[in-house]
Amino acid sequence: MSTDTKAAKESATNGSPKPTSPNADLKLDFASFWEYSSAPESSEKVTIESLYGHFIDGDFVKPAKGRMFTSVNPANEEVLTELAEGTSEDVDRAVKAARNAYNKKWRTLSGKERGKYIFRIARMIQERSRELAITESLDGGKPIRESRDVDIPLAAAYFFYYAGWADKLDYAFPGRNVEPVGVCGQIIPWNFPLLMLAWKIAPALATGNTVVLKPAETTSITALKFAEICRDAGLPAGVVNIITGAGQTGSAIVNHSDIDKIAFTGSTKVGKIIQNALAGSDTKYTLELGGKGANIVFEDASIDQAVEGIINAIFFNQGHVCCAGSRLLVQEGIAERLITKLKDRMETLIVGDPLDKNTDIGAINSKSQFERIEEYINIGKNEGAEIYQSSCSIPENGYFCRPTIFTGVSQSNRIVQEEIFGPVLTIQTFRTPAEAIEKANNSQYGLSSGIWTDRGSKIFQAGAEMDSGVVWANTFNKFDPTSPFGGYKESGVGREGGLHGLYPYVNLV
């Protein structure tokens, strides 16, 4: 027992006035004296090379023009490694390797044999899960609990799932002749580096395609460790190629004449550029883009359960989630009580070192994203919204943002309409279900939404009326390899995951 705690108890027994309610007692004990001891995950046995080249044709190679850039740990702004900056020459080399592997090796293998390689990759992800989780948190800033318990297990699960489809494509598409598309160019974002890689590479390999993938420039390390896994698994050279770089590298992939299919996850702005670039060509594409998910809480919902769901919907992965529930719509009768409980719950969230197992909210992924979030917070204030941020301490170094909510907002506010991609939630109220649906659908996006109610009929009725690719009921941000994911309107084209995730990677005759 600490000295302060002992003194407080002695004072209470010596005639000092006692709190008038049990709640005050609890507040004294937990707010004043309860502290978590740090529980850091050791990174000593994780090896990050000082320099990484591109992974082309089964080997790590130097960039054609010798250009390099750095990858920085957003939690302390220290350089983790140097990465090769891909140019059109590097992309061309990778595409040629992928085409050669497609024609001479991969497409000629039976589905059973392809499945063996994919199963092996899945098992090796599991075997290296601790290393991959720590690397993901170091490179991306997300809490180790999320990397360890969500990202890496799900990445392995997607490879296991699609490995199972490799020799069953005749059952997936009965009565049709199934042919692979060819060479697939894939570009993934920085918020779920290894998981987004799995979403794209696993179905591509299962259907007999080869891949040229570009990870995000701020989070490339786990993709390069995945390249090591491909090499160690004995995957034929050229089947998977990984080119690192920024937007210029991605543009070289999109515009390459020998790419048969493009898969992109990222901003709506870049998605439109890709769509325009591919217009009129025979190149297939899928786009998973931005979102501004509505989370509707009806008055018959379990409020405590809903509060936990709201926390998970917007503060998971620092709000760096395209399908985040960033717009909360609460029925008027419970709004005041729910917001009070939400604020109390926010006060328990720990913002800090991503490698500390106590941390709930880690570091913002990059300086530029941190500045974007701060800009939107200032926009919200200038628009007249009422801001509430938790009172937690944050580290002096690195990019950290306290969990934030805005009340008193309207549909026309920019913070309601535009994707912030950070731990920032806007709250509106509604009176009737029809009003809730109207507000939820009043968005350029249509990726995800959530419904909280005790009535199953209301779930189905409201869910059917929402312009949203994914609708969660009494939960949020739950993913499964068997379920398709994708959006409507400016949230994208096509689906990933499940049986639907096979369609973009096959030609059906």
Verbal overview:
This protein is α/β, with parallel strands linked by helices. It folds into 2 domains: 51-289 and 491-508, Aldehyde Dehydrogenase, Chain A, domain 1; 294-482, Aldehyde Dehydrogenase, Chain A, domain 2, CATH 3.40.309.10. 41% of the residues lie in helices and 17% in strands. It contains 17 helices and 22 strands. The chain has a 7-stranded mixed beta sheet with strand order 14-15-16-13-12-18-19, sandwiched between helices. Strands 9-8-7-10-11-21 form a 6-stranded mixed beta sheet, with helices on both faces. The protein has a 3-stranded mixed beta sheet with strand order 1-5-4, covered by helices on one side. Strand 7, helix 8 and strand 8 form a beta-alpha-beta unit. Helix 4 runs antiparallel to helix 6 and helix 12 crosses helix 13. The longest helix is centred in the first third of the chain and has 22 residues, at 144-165. Mean pLDDT is 94; it is low at 1-31.
